[in-house]
């Protein structure tokens, strides 16, 4: 696997804390999964900025992905291939972090999410 440990930025930690309060979702990994998928659904490259992983929120890849960790990995590989990027470990790790940060920013930046129901509605819209 290309990533063994995932550490969030302090900004993402704060954003996820607010989302946890709004949605009632208690686990970081669940919100991070949603954020990753939301960002992957965009048809653009995330902005290539350094990700400062300075928070105390850390999880293993298998905590992040759970029983579907292989699917999240395959989604990222497929996205990189669609964007004509390399699928070496360094590139996959880089774009995983960029997508995670962008997805968290998107989810927390919208005033649409005030509850778990709003998050589910957003997921349905992205799926269309």
Structural features, described:
Helix 1 packs across helix 5. It contains six helices and two strands, in the order E-H-H-E-H-H-H-H. The protein has helices spanning 10-23, 28-40, 61-65, 69-82, 89-109, 116-127, and strands spanning 5-7, 58-60. The protein has a single domain, classed as Arc Repressor Mutant, CATH 1.10.1220. Strands 1-2 form a two-stranded antiparallel sheet. It is mostly helical and 128 residues long. It starts with a strand and ends with a helix.
Entry summary:
By secondary structure, the chain is mostly helical.
SSE inventory with pairings:
Blueprint (H helix, E strand, L loop, with lengths): L4 E3 L2 H14 L4 H13 L17 E3 H5 L3 H14 L6 H21 L6 H12 L1
Antiparallel strand pairs: 1-2
Helix pairs in contact: 1-5, 2-5
Entry keywords:
128 residues; mainly alpha; Arc Repressor Mutant; two-stranded antiparallel sheet; 2 strands; globular
Shape: globular
Kindly give the count of domains.
1
Q: According to CATH, what is the class?
A: Mainly Alpha
Arithmetic mean of pLDDT: 87
Unreliable spans are: none
Tell me what the CATH architecture is. Orthogonal Bundle
Strand order of the largest sheet: 1-2
CATH homologous superfamily descriptor: DNA sulphur modification protein DndE
- The number of E-state strands comes to 2
Helix content: 55-70%
Written as H for each helix and E for each strand, in order along the chain, the element string is: EHHEHHHH
Percentage of residues in DSSP E strands = under 5%
Given helix and strand content, the structural type is mainly alpha
Sheet with the most strands, sense and barrel status: 2 strands, antiparallel
How far from one another are the termini?
A: 30 Å
Helix tally equals 6
Query: Whole-number radius of gyration?
Result: 14 Å
| CATH topology title | Arc Repressor Mutant
């Amino acid at each position: 696997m290309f990533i063994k440990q995932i550490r969030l930025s302090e900004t993402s930690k704060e954003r996820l804390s607010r989302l946890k309060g709004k949605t009632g979702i208690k686990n970081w990994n669940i919100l991070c999964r949603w954020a990753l998928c939301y960002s992957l659904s965009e048809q653009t490259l995330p902005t290539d900025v350094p990700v400062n992983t300075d928070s105390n929120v850390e999880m293993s890849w298998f905590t992040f992905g759970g029983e579907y960790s292989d699917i999240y990995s395959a989604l990222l590989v497929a996205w990189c291939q669609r964007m004509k990027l390399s699928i070496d470990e360094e590139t996959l790790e880089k774009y995983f972090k960029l997508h995670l940060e962008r997805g968290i920013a998107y989810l927390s930046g919208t005033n649409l999410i005030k509850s778990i129901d709003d998050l589910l509605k957003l997921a349905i819209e992205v799926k269309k």
